[in-house]
Amino acid sequence: MRSLATSDRRFARALSRTIATVSTTSHAREVLQVFYRMGASPTRIVPAVRTSPNYRSRRFEADEPSLRPRLRAQTSALLAAIRVHGRGRPVGAVPRVVPRLPEQAGDLAVTWYGHATTLLELDGVRILIDPVFGERVSPSERFGPRRLHPVPGPIEDLPGVDVVLISHDHYDHLDAPSIATLERTHRPHYVVPLGVDFHLRAWRVPADRITALDWRESTDLSGLRLTCTEARHNSGRGLVDSQTLWAGWAMHGPRHSAYYAGDSGTSKRFAHIGADLGPFDVTLLPIGAYDPFWPDLHLEPEQTVAAHRDVNRIGSAAEAVTADAAGVADGFIEGDQRIDTPGGAHEEGETTTTGRRAATAARTSVLFPVHWATFNLAMHWWAEPMRRVRRAAAAAEVPVVSPRLGDRVDLTQAEPDVVAATYADPWWDECSAPEDRD
Hints:
This protein is an alpha/beta fold. 24% of the residues lie in helices and 15% in strands. The chain has 9 helices and 15 strands. The chain has helices spanning 10-38, 42-49, 71-83, 176-185, 196-202, 269-277, 301-311, 384-396, 416-422, and strands at 55-56, 59-60, 108-114, 117-122, 125-129, 163-165, 189-193, 210-213, 218-221, 224-229, 248-252, 257-260, 282-286, 366-370, 408-410. It has a 7-stranded mixed β-sheet, with helices on one face. A 6-stranded mixed β-sheet has the order 9-10-11-12-13-14. α6 (269-277) runs parallel beside α7 and α7 (301-311) packs across α8. The longest helix is centred in the first third of the chain and has 29 residues, at 10-38.
């Protein structure tokens, strides 16, 4: 049987050429889209960032290393991930509500859109944190971790966004299509770690609406002070990693304050951040995507509670409520090399250099868990992070909120314990596997 290309009929041959052209064009368009979503290349970024004191040995480096597993450990991790892939997925529809947002930003309110994407209202300023509204966290529309639930609401429905805050350039925290939509609808000011600004420029965000900062640098914007803080993680959107900086953010307004850790493994820096910049009215801290194969990169839930307490301690005299799991040294993976770095400066008996003194605020600061539920990025059960962090927070007497996706939590409506009790319903049980419940 002849193919269309070799048919005796002129029409058939013409149709074959058209199909080939369209197919080739489609593949070319897909390839171009992948490169576009990856953002700026290291060759464009490095000349502008290599003068940073935190850029050395051809990459950004923190005092505490955040090493990826070597090849042997990576192979073991891949095989393990295949075996337990279903654990990281809900078994039913994830409950969510349509966000009810005031036209004017409130004094202190948080709306969670899934994973790390959060809308923070701070003293009348609206801050959108790590906006990822796309279907996949990948440069490709066809491959990569796919969203486990719909977004509670689109970017277009947000009231005016004043500031967009980015923690780092991994795909689950920086999404090119979401930036394009923000540019079309809001045109906010972006505050980012060093090097991430080049991705935004590649996506046609004007340079005069981007502020790029190194660790411990600050900027004043819309009446707020935003300070770039250390984190124990890495970065990268291609084969070369850590050519851009990763960070957390301390946010201070005239009356209220908030802290977002970005992505981080357990770190002594949390106590130093608390001593220099804390305490905070609310902390937005990651609780998911942890695993023994990469203990340096993400917090386990018990370590999240320890980090919350660390960033809300002032000076060296703050007292712990319970022993922290963060004081346990990182595990050792065969085939990998990792420096044994316990987390939590308070547990190690270290003192900070600050001269500030104030009572600890860990019990009055609200812990708002993020970085879970939306993408299957690790090997733990889907709802396990929330189950574990609630137990740890209860033991440490830390108020923790657990709202449904899209719920707006007004933290000024009552005392922290009352707010936490208002958002304590275990809604995840209705869509968790039987093995994934308390």
